[in-house]
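Need Glycine--tRNA ligase's 3D structure for a figure. Predict it.
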Amino acid sequence: MKSMEKIVSLCKRRGYLFQSSEIYGGIQGFWDYGPLGVELKRNLKDAWWHDMISGHNELVKPESAPTAFEMVGLDSTIIMHPQVWKCSGHYDLFHDHMVDCRESKKRYRFDQIRGRWVEYQDKKVFVTTMAEAEQELDEVRRRGMKFFRLRNKDADKISVGDESLTLDKLDSTENVLAPDAKNLDTLTEPREFNLMFKTTLGALGGEDDTTFLRPETAQGIFVNFKNVLDSSRVGLPFGIGQIGKSFRNEITPRNFTFRSREFEQMEIEFFCHPDQSQQWYRYWRDRRLAWYKALGLSDESLIMREHHQEELAHYSVGTADIEYAFPFLPEGEYGELEGIAHRGDFDLRSHMEGKLDPSTRPMQVELGEDGKPKYRGSGRDLSYRDEATNEKFVPHVVEPSAGADRGALAFLCEAYTEDEAPDENGKLQSRTVMKLHPRLAPIKAAVFPLVKKDGMPEVAHEIYGELKRHMNVFYDEKGAVGRRYRRQDEAGTPYCITVDTDTLTDRTVTIRDRDTLEQTRVKIDDVVADLQTRING
Ligand code: ATP
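Structure prediction for Glycine--tRNA ligase:
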């Protein structure tokens, strides 16, 4: 059975993910990727970069696209001019406003984009660290909740007293927090939290030196729109992609890496003519969903959720979320992996004119003395002139915005499988196997000499050395070969290459497939090409 507890434990045991600063008790909302995790996340980002940006062929029109198009990349800074965040709306609007209901004790946050209060508290909480468990207990006390139920009774790591929670040793435990009342009427005064991390430039640190760690990579693309246009000969329609860290001071980071305070985004801003923007929106929505499926997320666990009209930002004519059935969510619920938004000309216009119309915004925008929004744009002309028609316009934008950490987590959850495989004597043994797509797998192949003698290690070294030039491979000569296979199954390694007695006479090896368990004999000279075909298709 797939459970979040087992996945978290495997992640730690095998070096996929560690709690940040663990030896000091950890820091909430921050995660470190271990030796396997770093490879997985890098492979995911490389796949995205290749499939969306560097491997894109602008000469061929994809079947479902309105026209052929170009894609280029960018790497902008994390700290930007403070005015960027004022014009983008983040300075005024990227706040969490929270209220508590006095009766039900439920907590609500104001969703700026949707313009309404949404229940803040997740119904089901996955606790992975001591600090998180303690925070949940505080929440239970604060809300005066009647019950705090352990879903996984076997875990026996939390004992629930009247209002106490004793933690002996905590790797992971799944809890269901259930509020006891449903009345939503009486709400406390809103309290405000800015989600942007502040920092100070230079030594003096006056008010003017305050700036922010970016909460999204997108703005770096918008402010470079003109630079890219002028320097790279691209013309509309085209997209600019960027991968990089973003930071949000989330009030309740939780559910493993799903909601972190430091995370990585993979974002595209696709610029097009307003008349074609609806078609491009549909194109990107469908293409992004297909991408996750091609890398192994199953149809049953993925949904595309189109936002209702009332959920849409005022400038958006369409937004869809690609959501995944993470095991920490209740049955039938999904968590966002990526949002694809039609953003109209809102962002480019904001950076041109500082156009923030308070009447269309749910929260108050600070006005200047002239009654207009205080934060003016750059004053630069960010419009586009079509050379063929001479038409001048501000392009519309379609934004597929994905999280690399949520993606990596979804692929880990999907990959976790328990099945049975025969051991050396043909007896079925249960095994845990991470069925990661070969492109994403941290280690592509493991090389084993069957025994540590008769010249087998020397041949295995030779193969290992050759493969290392092309991909990440692992060498192991310790213990029974069956156990070595098991270790690689758990690490998600798709292929194991074994040097045996036959190798010494005919220079062939066996390649074992992790998922089908099929073993094929391949000439040593063909191993690299064989693996490359298996991995990249
Ligand atoms: P949520 O509603 O879950 O807070 P969001 O709608 O605010 O997410 P966006 O601003 O659209 O998210 O960001 C785009 C993507 O960045 C998300 O789909 C997600 O994959 C990722 N992301 C956003 N916030 C976080 C976070 N705190 N931790 C990890 N990934 C995140």
